[in-house]
């Protein structure tokens, strides 16, 4: 003879309140239906997307661990105790954070960023070397032509060597994405700060800016001092308006200021990315004008990096023609530190290697807003590929 279970019973006072919250029908036990409804409510509260099958699997696992299809408050107490014991064991394994001395923290920081520190030091030494080469060239020139020594002229010409080296050789390297991707798979990756290329690009940009300001100031002061001499043949305005050094110099200053301003984070990392993108195209105006301004020197250090740059861009557009596809994002997962994981439908015939990157563009955000992202999923994964992006890009 089957007897129906009562719908409500009087529970002892020692029964915990969280058990009462899960015992939805108040019959003194947590049934499969009670646990299912409780998990569904919890998933809504925590904004979790759990399917019915996932909820059923979790419910079955919880009740199976208790060797019953019904869980009384005694079973509930045992379950909470075992969870508390596991938490205590996990916490005991983790060593408490000890207070470290400033010297110890400094040592850790130096070990973490030792490669970047070495390359920044090398960059500083190279700038000093280029400045020294400029001084030597200036001294040799005034000896050969019998001119008077002019300190400001010497500093201005020496800084020009720094500007030519930085603009002609170093500023191109952050654009060598394919080369850097291939270098990651070689032994040179241990010695090159490939992951800090953007940081070095910014540092070199500041180097060019500081040297350009100092270079321009030295020659402006020099032109003014010469123009006020009694036997001066040119006025100050004539000196700064001369084409090869004057007008081209002002064009370089205006171009550099424009590029630098629109590269600031509050423009580049917002919906104004297209402005950053197009003002950066002024770099070609900058290079051509710098070749005219520097006369016979700059093109010698410019031609090799520019040739590699052209090859990089050519490969990019060939790959875009061969592999460019319209695809869609099938899933977005929010990650800590304002990051998101994009799960993208993998186009047919799309192949890649570990360490490769892809260019993504959302047309409704801008037709020129192409961004390069490293592929974080394995090449063997079928159907989709994954990448991580900062939320400011989305």
List the keywords.
single chain; 394 residues; mainly alpha; 3-stranded antiparallel sheet; two-stranded antiparallel ribbon; 15 helices; disordered N terminus
* Low-confidence blocks of residues: 1-11, 90-94
| Sheet with the most strands, sense and barrel status | 3 strands, antiparallel
Looking at how many chains there are and whether they match, the oligomeric state comes to single chain
Strand content: 5-15%
Secondary-structure class: mainly alpha
How does this structure look, described?
By secondary structure, the protein is mainly alpha-helical. The chain is built from 15 helices and seven strands. The strands form three sheets. A three-stranded antiparallel β-sheet has the order 3-4-7, with no helix packed on it. Strands 1-2 form a two-stranded antiparallel sheet. A hairpin with a 3-residue loop joins strand 3 (329-335) and strand 4 (339-345). Helix 2 (32-45) packs across helix 3 (52-65), helix 6 crosses helix 7 and helix 9 (197-227) packs antiparallel against helix 11. The two termini are 64 Å apart.
Task: Give a short summary of the structure.
This protein is mostly helical and 394 residues long.
């Amino acid at each position: 003879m089957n007897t129906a279970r009562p719908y409500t019973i009087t529970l002892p006072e020692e029964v915990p309140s969280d058990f009462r919250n899960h015992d939805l029908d108040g019959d003194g036990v947590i049934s499969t239906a009670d646990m299912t409804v409780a998990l569904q409510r919890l998933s809504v509260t925590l904004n979790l997307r759990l399917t019915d099958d996932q909820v059923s699997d979790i419910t079955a696992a919880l009740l199976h661990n208790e060797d019953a299809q019904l869980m009384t408050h005694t079973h509930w107490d045992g379950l909470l105790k075992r969870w508390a014991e596991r938490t205590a064991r996990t916490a005991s394994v983790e060593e408490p954070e000890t207070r470290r001395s400033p010297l110890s923290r400094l040592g850790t920081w130096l070990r973490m960023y030792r490669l970047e520190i070495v390359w920044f030091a090398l960059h500083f030494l190279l700038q000093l070397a280029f400045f020294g080469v400029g001084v030597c060239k200036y001294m040799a020139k005034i000896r050969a032509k019998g001119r008077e020594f002019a300190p400001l002229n010497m500093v201005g010409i020496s800084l020009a060597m720094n500007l030519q080296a930085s603009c002609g050789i170093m500023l191109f390297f952050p654009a060598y994405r394919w080369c850097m991707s291939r270098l990651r798979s070689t032994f040179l990756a241990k010695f090159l700060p490939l992951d800090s290329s953007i940081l070095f690009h910014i540092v070199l940009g500041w180097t060019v800016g500081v040297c350009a300001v100092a270079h321009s100031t030295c020659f402006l002061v020099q032109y003014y001092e010469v123009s006020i001499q009694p036997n001066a043949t040119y006025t100050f305005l004539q000196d700064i308006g001369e084409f090869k050094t004057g007008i081209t110099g002002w064009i370089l200053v205006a171009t550099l200021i424009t590029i630098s301003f629109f590269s600031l984070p509050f423009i580049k990392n917002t919906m104004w990315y297209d402005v950053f993108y197009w003002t950066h195209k002024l770099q070609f105006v900058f290079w051509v004008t710098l070749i005219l301004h520097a006369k016979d020197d700059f093109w010698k250090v410019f031609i090799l990096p520019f040739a590699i740059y052209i090859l990089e861009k050519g490969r990019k557009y060939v790959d875009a023609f061969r592999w460019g596809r319209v695809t869609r994002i099938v899933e977005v997962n929010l990650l800590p530190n304002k990051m998101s994981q994009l799960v993208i439908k993998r186009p047919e015939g799309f192949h890649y290697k570990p360490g490769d990157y892809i260019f993504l563009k959302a047309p409704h955000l801008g037709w020129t807003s192409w961004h390069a992202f490293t592929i974080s999923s394995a090449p063997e994964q079928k159907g989709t590929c994954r990448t991580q992006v900062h939320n400011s890009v989305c």
